TrEMBL record:
The gene is recF. The keyword DNA-binding applies. It holds the Pfam family SMC_N. It comes from Aurantiacibacter gilvus. Signal peptide: none annotated. Residues 22-355 form the AAA+ ATPase domain. The keyword ATP-binding applies. This is DNA replication and repair protein RecF. The RecF protein is involved in DNA metabolism; it is required for DNA replication and normal SOS inducibility. RecF binds preferentially to single-stranded, linear DNA. It also seems to bind ATP. Its main location: cytoplasm. PROSITE patterns: RECF_1 (PS00617), RECF_2 (PS00618). The lineage of its organism: Bacteria, Pseudomonadati, Pseudomonadota, Alphaproteobacteria, Sphingomonadales. It comes from the Bacteria.
Amino acid sequence: MALDHITLASFRNHAATRLDGARQLNLLVGENGAGKTNVLEALSLFAPGRGLRRASLTEVAGQSGQGGFGASALLDTGDGGEPVKLGTGMSPERSGRRIVQVNGAETSAISLGEWLAMGWLTPAMDRLFADTATARRRFVDRMAVAIEPGHARHASRYEAALRERNRLLSDEMEPDPAWLDSLEAQMASHGSALAQGRARLLGSLTTRLEELPDAPFARPALAYLPSGSIEEEVMLSQWRSERGRDRAAQRTLSGPHRDELGVTMAGKDMPASECSTGEQKAMLVAITLAHAELAARGRPGVLLLDEVAAHLDPIRREALFDRLRDSGTQVWLTGTEPAPFEAILGEAAVWRVADGVAEPV
Ligand SMILES: Nc1ncnc2c1ncn2[C@@H]1O[C@H](COP(=O)(O)OP(=O)(O)OP(=O)(O)O)[C@@H](O)[C@H]1O
């Protein structure tokens, strides 16, 4: 089933952890600080990006590994062929950079997105709707990358060109117009691809959310609010015409780095940030599930749900488990106690985690 035979070596508080016998539904149970989220974080590094905590590699490395760490898993691609061996890690001897391997051959983190579709929901995202626009853009981009891995490249190239334009705009020396021309051309090429990727993602998420029943999850209505045009030519001429204004502000005031994700609770027509904590959680769950179902088409899907069940009332919890079963996606859940998961205990693979050690139950 998707990921199995998982190993963690010197990964935060896991000196040497092995998880065998994974199923579609998987549950890690243990006290606070036991190391459950650390396992999910290790799994999240089998996807492009910095993982579910966006931690630096040195933060992740445990004390037992001389400054490095490693994680591996076998991926069942579902086509009846041999499982694919995924590995990721960092070693100070190898310049401290992230190493990614597929079947023993080194590759880029971005290419992991071709093998599996990864999504997650963590308690840190509970305030997403009231958080900064940057956090919401990151959320949208991460979902887009899981569906179109090339989105990550457009995001990073846009950011790099934008940083350089901002550096020139804030420099004491008058910026070289030819250099600005070239940077704005790169920003327009990658920025329009980035914005169009966001628009496509939110369009298909909206369609998927509309297919689902309202109850028991609050149905969110998503709106992509770009900061301006998402067409390359229009973006380019806008930045050219705004050079004077941007020079005065010492930074680029418009572009995909200022886009917003609008979320309202459908039916109530209320901004998500003003909904109750439980409603916000239910909307986040609805978006995460809709996305997981979209992303998993054609590739194995893996969904990491950290402490989700405990925050839902019993009716929503049951509905969540039903949806997870039907999704075909592999799911990894965590909780401090097994009681809220009673409905799935018979079918899920369960591990008890304590002090960085995971034992099958
Ligand atoms: N680099 C590291 N090296 C060793 N231990 C670490 C490292 N980073 C974090 N830890 C330890 O990992 C533990 C936290 O693990 P984790 O976040 O997985 O807990 P959890 O089981 O999900 O708990 P909760 O239920 O509270 O969310 C803490 O004890 C922390 O000290």
